[in-house]
Design brief:
By secondary structure, the protein is mainly α. The chain has nine helices and two strands; from the N terminus they run αααααααααββ. It is elongated.
Length: about 220
Protein backbone atom coordinates (compact mmCIF):
# COMPACT_ATOMS: atom_id res chain seq x y z
CA UNK A 1 0.00 0.00 0.00
CA UNK A 2 1.12 3.52 -0.61
CA UNK A 3 1.63 5.94 2.26
CA UNK A 4 -1.84 7.48 1.96
CA UNK A 5 -3.65 4.16 2.41
CA UNK A 6 -1.30 3.08 5.18
CA UNK A 7 -2.17 6.25 7.10
CA UNK A 8 -5.92 5.84 6.47
CA UNK A 9 -6.02 2.21 7.59
CA UNK A 10 -3.76 2.93 10.57
CA UNK A 11 -6.22 5.62 11.69
CA UNK A 12 -9.11 3.15 11.28
CA UNK A 13 -7.24 0.48 13.24
CA UNK A 14 -7.03 2.96 16.09
CA UNK A 15 -10.36 4.75 15.69
CA UNK A 16 -12.71 1.74 15.53
CA UNK A 17 -11.64 0.05 18.79
CA UNK A 18 -11.41 3.48 20.45
CA UNK A 19 -15.04 4.12 19.51
CA UNK A 20 -16.06 0.70 20.81
CA UNK A 21 -14.37 1.40 24.15
CA UNK A 22 -15.65 4.97 24.41
CA UNK A 23 -19.28 4.42 23.48
CA UNK A 24 -19.95 0.80 24.41
CA UNK A 25 -17.49 -0.56 26.97
CA UNK A 26 -16.91 2.45 29.26
CA UNK A 27 -20.66 2.99 29.88
CA UNK A 28 -20.95 -0.58 31.20
CA UNK A 29 -21.30 -1.01 34.93
CA UNK A 30 -18.14 -1.93 36.82
CA UNK A 31 -17.31 -5.59 36.46
CA UNK A 32 -14.48 -8.00 35.74
CA UNK A 33 -15.76 -8.43 32.19
CA UNK A 34 -15.56 -4.67 31.60
CA UNK A 35 -11.93 -4.51 32.77
CA UNK A 36 -11.01 -7.56 30.69
CA UNK A 37 -12.68 -6.07 27.61
CA UNK A 38 -10.81 -2.78 27.97
CA UNK A 39 -7.48 -4.54 28.52
CA UNK A 40 -7.92 -6.91 25.56
CA UNK A 41 -9.06 -4.09 23.26
CA UNK A 42 -6.08 -1.90 24.15
CA UNK A 43 -3.53 -4.70 23.87
CA UNK A 44 -4.81 -6.11 20.56
CA UNK A 45 -5.17 -2.63 19.06
CA UNK A 46 -1.61 -1.65 19.97
CA UNK A 47 -0.24 -4.97 18.70
CA UNK A 48 -2.08 -4.93 15.37
CA UNK A 49 -1.41 -1.23 14.81
CA UNK A 50 2.30 -1.78 15.42
CA UNK A 51 2.38 -4.79 13.08
CA UNK A 52 0.48 -2.91 10.37
CA UNK A 53 2.76 0.13 10.50
CA UNK A 54 5.82 -2.12 10.59
CA UNK A 55 4.55 -4.02 7.53
CA UNK A 56 4.63 -0.78 5.53
CA UNK A 57 8.41 -0.77 5.94
CA UNK A 58 8.87 -4.36 4.72
CA UNK A 59 9.88 -3.39 1.13
CA UNK A 60 12.49 -0.93 2.43
CA UNK A 61 13.87 -3.50 4.88
CA UNK A 62 13.99 -6.15 2.15
CA UNK A 63 15.89 -3.84 -0.21
CA UNK A 64 18.40 -3.06 2.52
CA UNK A 65 18.71 -6.80 3.20
CA UNK A 66 19.23 -7.65 -0.48
CA UNK A 67 21.71 -4.79 -0.98
CA UNK A 68 23.74 -6.00 1.99
CA UNK A 69 23.72 -9.62 0.80
CA UNK A 70 24.69 -8.62 -2.77
CA UNK A 71 27.62 -6.67 -1.36
CA UNK A 72 28.65 -9.66 0.76
CA UNK A 73 28.49 -12.06 -2.20
CA UNK A 74 30.42 -9.65 -4.42
CA UNK A 75 33.08 -9.15 -1.75
CA UNK A 76 33.65 -12.90 -1.53
CA UNK A 77 33.91 -13.22 -5.32
CA UNK A 78 36.24 -10.22 -5.62
CA UNK A 79 38.51 -11.57 -2.90
CA UNK A 80 39.18 -14.56 -5.13
CA UNK A 81 39.36 -12.53 -8.35
CA UNK A 82 39.59 -8.74 -7.87
CA UNK A 83 36.89 -6.71 -9.67
CA UNK A 84 35.49 -9.89 -11.21
CA UNK A 85 31.89 -8.82 -10.50
CA UNK A 86 32.40 -5.75 -12.72
CA UNK A 87 33.88 -7.64 -15.66
CA UNK A 88 31.81 -8.04 -18.82
CA UNK A 89 31.14 -11.80 -19.11
CA UNK A 90 29.43 -14.03 -21.63
CA UNK A 91 26.03 -15.59 -20.98
CA UNK A 92 27.30 -19.11 -20.33
CA UNK A 93 29.83 -17.97 -17.73
CA UNK A 94 27.21 -15.89 -15.93
CA UNK A 95 24.75 -18.77 -15.96
CA UNK A 96 27.30 -21.17 -14.49
CA UNK A 97 28.12 -18.72 -11.72
CA UNK A 98 24.60 -18.07 -10.46
CA UNK A 99 22.61 -21.09 -11.64
CA UNK A 100 22.75 -22.85 -8.27
CA UNK A 101 19.91 -21.00 -6.54
CA UNK A 102 19.99 -23.43 -3.59
CA UNK A 103 23.46 -22.22 -2.61
CA UNK A 104 22.39 -18.59 -2.91
CA UNK A 105 19.24 -19.28 -0.89
CA UNK A 106 21.31 -21.00 1.79
CA UNK A 107 23.67 -18.03 1.89
CA UNK A 108 20.81 -15.56 2.28
CA UNK A 109 19.15 -17.72 4.94
CA UNK A 110 22.27 -17.48 7.11
CA UNK A 111 21.53 -13.85 7.95
CA UNK A 112 19.93 -13.89 11.42
CA UNK A 113 19.90 -10.12 11.80
CA UNK A 114 16.63 -9.63 9.90
CA UNK A 115 13.20 -10.84 10.94
CA UNK A 116 11.50 -13.91 9.50
CA UNK A 117 9.01 -12.05 7.27
CA UNK A 118 11.64 -9.78 5.70
CA UNK A 119 14.01 -12.67 5.09
CA UNK A 120 11.32 -15.01 3.73
CA UNK A 121 9.68 -12.52 1.35
CA UNK A 122 13.01 -11.10 0.22
CA UNK A 123 14.65 -14.46 -0.42
CA UNK A 124 11.67 -15.99 -2.23
CA UNK A 125 11.21 -12.96 -4.47
CA UNK A 126 14.90 -12.62 -5.31
CA UNK A 127 15.53 -16.33 -5.83
CA UNK A 128 12.52 -16.63 -8.14
CA UNK A 129 14.06 -14.00 -10.42
CA UNK A 130 17.47 -15.66 -10.29
CA UNK A 131 15.82 -18.89 -11.44
CA UNK A 132 13.93 -16.99 -14.15
CA UNK A 133 17.20 -15.38 -15.24
CA UNK A 134 18.91 -18.76 -15.64
CA UNK A 135 15.98 -20.12 -17.65
CA UNK A 136 15.73 -17.03 -19.89
CA UNK A 137 19.30 -15.76 -19.95
CA UNK A 138 19.22 -14.83 -23.64
CA UNK A 139 16.19 -12.60 -23.02
CA UNK A 140 18.02 -10.83 -20.19
CA UNK A 141 21.13 -10.49 -22.36
CA UNK A 142 19.02 -8.78 -25.04
CA UNK A 143 17.65 -6.37 -22.44
CA UNK A 144 21.17 -5.45 -21.35
CA UNK A 145 22.32 -5.00 -24.94
CA UNK A 146 19.29 -2.80 -25.72
CA UNK A 147 20.32 -0.37 -22.97
CA UNK A 148 24.08 -0.74 -23.54
CA UNK A 149 24.46 -2.09 -20.00
CA UNK A 150 27.55 -4.25 -19.43
CA UNK A 151 26.63 -7.90 -18.78
CA UNK A 152 28.38 -8.11 -15.41
CA UNK A 153 27.52 -9.96 -12.23
CA UNK A 154 27.02 -6.67 -10.38
CA UNK A 155 24.59 -5.31 -12.96
CA UNK A 156 22.70 -8.60 -13.04
CA UNK A 157 22.34 -8.71 -9.26
CA UNK A 158 20.99 -5.14 -9.25
CA UNK A 159 18.69 -5.77 -12.22
CA UNK A 160 17.18 -8.84 -10.55
CA UNK A 161 16.67 -6.86 -7.36
CA UNK A 162 14.75 -4.20 -9.28
CA UNK A 163 12.62 -6.81 -11.06
CA UNK A 164 11.77 -8.48 -7.74
CA UNK A 165 10.12 -5.30 -6.44
CA UNK A 166 6.71 -6.22 -7.90
CA UNK A 167 6.66 -9.55 -6.06
CA UNK A 168 7.87 -7.90 -2.86
CA UNK A 169 5.10 -5.29 -2.93
CA UNK A 170 2.47 -7.95 -3.67
CA UNK A 171 3.65 -10.08 -0.74
CA UNK A 172 3.71 -7.04 1.52
CA UNK A 173 0.15 -6.15 0.50
CA UNK A 174 -0.97 -9.67 1.43
CA UNK A 175 0.60 -9.30 4.88
CA UNK A 176 -1.15 -5.96 5.36
CA UNK A 177 -4.51 -7.39 4.28
CA UNK A 178 -4.14 -10.33 6.67
CA UNK A 179 -3.49 -7.92 9.54
CA UNK A 180 -6.57 -5.87 8.60
CA UNK A 181 -8.74 -9.00 8.43
CA UNK A 182 -7.52 -10.14 11.85
CA UNK A 183 -8.24 -6.67 13.25
CA UNK A 184 -11.76 -6.74 11.76
CA UNK A 185 -12.50 -10.16 13.28
CA UNK A 186 -11.15 -9.15 16.70
CA UNK A 187 -13.21 -5.94 16.69
CA UNK A 188 -16.36 -7.90 15.81
CA UNK A 189 -15.68 -10.37 18.65
CA UNK A 190 -15.09 -7.53 21.12
CA UNK A 191 -18.26 -5.78 19.91
CA UNK A 192 -20.37 -8.92 20.37
CA UNK A 193 -18.76 -9.59 23.76
CA UNK A 194 -19.48 -6.03 24.92
CA UNK A 195 -23.12 -6.30 23.80
CA UNK A 196 -23.37 -9.64 25.61
CA UNK A 197 -22.17 -8.01 28.82
CA UNK A 198 -24.46 -4.99 28.32
CA UNK A 199 -27.54 -7.15 27.66
CA UNK A 200 -26.52 -9.61 30.37
CA UNK A 201 -26.66 -12.52 27.95
CA UNK A 202 -24.04 -14.17 30.12
CA UNK A 203 -24.21 -13.97 33.87
CA UNK A 204 -21.87 -15.40 36.44
CA UNK A 205 -23.68 -17.13 39.29
CA UNK A 206 -22.82 -19.58 42.01
CA UNK A 207 -24.00 -22.35 39.75
CA UNK A 208 -21.75 -21.36 36.87
CA UNK A 209 -22.58 -19.43 33.70
CA UNK A 210 -26.22 -18.89 32.82
CA UNK A 211 -27.17 -17.95 29.25
CA UNK A 212 -30.22 -15.80 28.60
CA UNK A 213 -31.62 -12.48 29.71
CA UNK A 214 -32.50 -11.86 33.30
CA UNK A 215 -36.12 -11.57 34.19
Amino acid sequence: MNTFYVVIFAILLLAIPTAIVRFLIIPLKKSTEKNVLIAITILTTLLLLTLFIASAFIPKKINQFIDFEIAQIENQINQISPEYTHQDLNAETIKNLISDSKKIRSYLDDNDEVNFIVRTIGINAYISYIESFCENIDLYLNEFEATNTPFTLHNIFISLKEKSQVSIFKATRIVEIIILIIAFIINIVILIWAFAVKKQWMENSNNGIVFGENS
